[in-house]
Amino acid sequence: MAAVTGKSDYGDVVISLENCILDDDQLKNTPSIKDGLDKEVEIDLRIVGCEYIQMAGILLKLDQVAMATAQVLFQRFYYSKSLVKHDGEIYSMACIFLAAKIEECPRRIRDVINVFHHIKQRRNARTIQPMEYMGNSYFNLKNQVIKAERRILKELGFCVHVKHPHKIIIMYLQILDCETNTLLAQQAWNFMNDSFRTNIFVRYSPETIACACIFLSSRQLGISLPTRPPWWELFGAKLEDLEEISLTLLSLYTRPKANLDTLQKAVGEIRKDLAQKKSDKADGAAAANNSTPNLSPTGGTTAARDDSRTGSRPSSPSSKVSPSSAASLTDGKKKKSSSKDEDKRTSYKQRPISRASRRSRSPVNRRSRSRSEAEVEADQEVTAYRSARPIISAEAGRKAATKAPTNKR
């Protein structure tokens, strides 16, 4: 279902419940091969990672659907990231931890780490010892698994839905009237579980894979199915795809079992080579930066700029100046400075008077001005009254005060 946008379309957002199918270029040119990993080593690492997930799912008592989801996520992730740069053991833990939550049967991360630690000890024939919960190794491993889970979700774009063909096998057998043949159903189911260790789930649809499992089981058990018309055409499959899937499954059984230590050693050597190339590239870039002079914004080099700051003078003979030329230079500078001062004076004289120097005519200023004039007038009246009033002696003033009538209540 494509999103409908306006006039400026920049791309389509496709939402589908079908499994992700990769093209031939993505299948051949994987990130691991680009980093220098051999193709056969990559296939062995994928098989070992899926085997670890299957064994851990059995010990964790997960459903087969959850284990299948984890293996498909593991295969999908390493078609976008390299096995050289991302440890397969850490990401197998993260895949099963994430798949258990997707299929609604979550497990604690502590249990997942303990189960993988147990499988690793058994595979290396060591004495089984539990991991210390309070140790640094446990906390570091736990943080790595959590980060790996986030990276898986980021690289897959949170498209973690997986359509499994287990139910499709049962439905197809019912259509072919073979649901009562438990041997055929069990054989096809086993082929289906083993196919998760290969990359056929990123190459073909689940319907085609279900037909291939029934096709291979019927051939091995000698059970005849309708061929006129071919029964697989009823389900939209092609004979070429069925044969290719069958050959991939049979090659899985005939493939020699890989040694995990040998695989890790090969990956470690490639990691060292990549680290060496990276360091050489960084050293070359640093040498190139040191060899090229850093130009200052004014056009000179940093060395010349440092000389000007420290006050050091160049020792070249062309830099020496005679006294007569020095005197002429100073006179020229004085003339230039005097001419600049005259220009400033003339420009200042011609400059118009700014309005800020004028008194503002706002109502507030008018009120303040009127108040000050009234006060001045009052002061003038007081002074005039005092000047017109006759001078009275102190004794006359006392007599006048005694003769003045008193107010009686």
From TrEMBL:
Here the segments flagged for biased composition (Polar residues) are 292-301
Ranges of biased composition (kind: Basic residues): 356-369
- What UniProt keywords are attached to this protein's entry? Cyclin
Single Gene Ontology MF annotation: cyclin-dependent protein serine/threonine kinase regulator activity
Per the record, a Pfam family?
Cyclin_N
Q: The Cyclin-like domain covers which part of the protein?
A: 51-154, 167-251
Q: What are the Low complexity biased-composition ranges?
A: 312-328
The answer to whether UniProt assigns keyword rRNA-binding to this entry is no
Q: State whether keyword Aminoacyl-tRNA synthetase applies.
A: no
Q: Where is the Cyclin C-terminal domain?
A: 163-294
InterPro entries noted in UniProt:
Cyclin-like_dom, Cyclin-like_sf, Cyclin/Ssn8, Cyclin_C-dom, Cyclin_N
Q: Which residues form a coiled coil?
A: none
Q: A GO term (biological process) for this protein?
A: regulation of transcription by RNA polymerase II
Where are the residues of the annotated region Disordered?
A: 275-409
Can you tell me which family this protein belongs to?
Belongs to the cyclin family.
**What's the name of the protein?**
Cyclin-L1
**What organism is listed for this UniProt entry?**
Desmophyllum pertusum
Q: What is the lineage of its organism?
A: Eukaryota, Metazoa, Cnidaria, Anthozoa, Hexacorallia
